[in-house]
Write a structure and sequence with these properties.
This protein has 2 domains: about 140 residues, no CATH class; about 110 residues, no CATH class. Helix content is about 60%, strand content about 0%. The chain is built from 12 helices and no strands. It is elongated, with a radius of gyration of 23 Å.
Amino acid sequence: MRPRDKRIGRVKQAIEEAPVRRHLLREAYQWFKDFGDLPEDDDHVAFEVLQQALNGGKEQPLVDEAKVRARVRKAGIAHQRREALDDAAWPPSVRALLFNEALFEFPALRAAARAQIAVEVAYGGDVENPAFGARHGIPVYGSVALHMGGWQKRLVLPPYEFQAEQLLVRFDNIRGQIPHEDPKWFEVQGKAIVKFKETGELPDDDLHIDSVLANVEMDQLVAHKKGKDVSEVMALLNTVQRRDGEEQQEALKRVCAMAAEGRIF
C-alpha cells in the first residue's frame, strides 16, 4: 500500500471512530423520541440513539475512545446481524428485539422495524419505556416487526380466508421442524424456492418440499392482495393439501408445470 493510501485510510478510520457530536445526537434522539424516526444515513448515530432509549433516555459518555470504537464496530455492521444492542434485561422485551431489527436486520426488515417504531410512537408509545410495544408479545419465530404489524393476517382475504388460515397453521408446523441452528438449511431452502419458480422442480427432502409449497402459496396470497388473479394456482395448491393419491399428484404436477411456464407469482 502506498504511503498516500495509508494516510487516507488512517484519516477515514479516525473520522469513522470519532465520537458523535453531542448536539447532533441530542437532536437525533429527540426526533426519535417524538416521532420514532431514526437517521437513515448514519448507522453510528442510529446505534447511539437506540442505545440511549434502552438506557431510559440517559446520555452515555462519548469521550472514551475504546468504548467509542467498540460501539462504532457494532454500528458499522448494521444489516449483517452479527451483534446485538447492549440490553442485559431478561426476559427479552419486544422493544429490545424490535430495536435490534431496526439496526441489524437486512434492509427490507430493517425498514419494517423502523416503520413499526414510528407507528407505536404515533399511538403514544414511549421509546424509553421497557414495555414499549409489549402488548403485541414476542413471536416464537420470525420478525418482531412483521408480527407487530399483523402482516400475515392482512393476507387473509376473501375468497381464500379458510385456505389462508390453514396456510398460517402450516407455516407454524413447518417452523417447528426447521433446524434453526443450521444456517445452511436456509441457504438450501432459498435456492430450492428459486429453482422451483424457474424450472418447476421440487427438492427431494420432504421438509424442503413442504416449505417450498408453503412459500409459494404465501406468494400467491400477496399477489391476490395486489389484485392479481391467482384462482387457478390457489385451487391446485388447495387440492395438493386437502386431497391424496392420484388427485393430489395430478394437482402437484400441474402446479409444477405452471411454475415452469412462469405462470406463478
